[in-house]
Design goal:
The protein is α+β, with helices and mostly antiparallel strands. The chain has a single domain, classed as Cathepsin B, Chain A (Alpha-Beta Complex), CATH 3.90.70. The chain has 3 helices and 7 strands, in the order ββααβαββββ. The longest helix has 11 residues. The mean pLDDT is 85.
């Protein structure tokens, strides 16, 4: 189990991103495990393979089992890292909550870190690669994991055209 700091378990990812060797980084899994205070092995590695555009759907399905929801908000990629941190950190919705930021790491791949207020407080990277720019889609992504209200129902995940599942 990772380091426990003020209730946040700081997990380090188990796999460093190296797709040429068939290894896909699990930083998102490490951040979710940290925030939910779970062993990292209990959170699925939803990005374990070439990007199929369905990682968020798979993570939402897991979070449903934890009575949680994922809120993702994109921000203009022309903003600097400091501008994103300052803006998101000042939003009333942040209200002292931990949140995740997805962007591009020093190694050139998408990466997720944990923030609180306008600061990055945990980088789950094995190499501390950090975030230096927007994600590979040209956007910054701020994410919150929130507990569902008792009156909320879990909606089935939308089916993707062509799915036989």
């Amino acid at each position: 189990m990772g380091e426990n700091v003020q209730g946040l378990i700081k997990h380090t990812q188990l796999f460093r991103h190296d797709p040429d060797k068939g290894i896909y980084g699990d930083c998102w899994r490490a951040t979710v495990a940290s925030l939910l205070r779970l062993p990292i092995e209990e959170v699925p590695h939803v990005c374990n393979g070439p990007d199929d555009g369905r990682a968020s759907e798979r993570m939402r399905a897991f979070l449903d089992t934890q009575n949680c929801a994922l809120i993702q908000i994109p921000f203009n990629g022309e903003m600097s890292l400091d501008q994103v941190l300052d803006y998101v950190g000042s939003l009333p919705v942040s209200g002292g909550l931990h949140w995740c930021l997805m962007g591009t790491s020093k190694t050139g791949c998408n990466h997720v870190v944990i923030c609180k207020g306008n600061e990055i407080i945990h980088d789950p990277s094995i190499t501390q690669s950090g975030i230096i720019g927007p994600a590979n889609d040209g956007l910054w992504w701020a994410e919150w994991i929130v507990q569902r209200a008792a009156c909320d129902t879990i909606m089935p995940a939308p089916q993707v055209m062509g799915d036989n599942a």
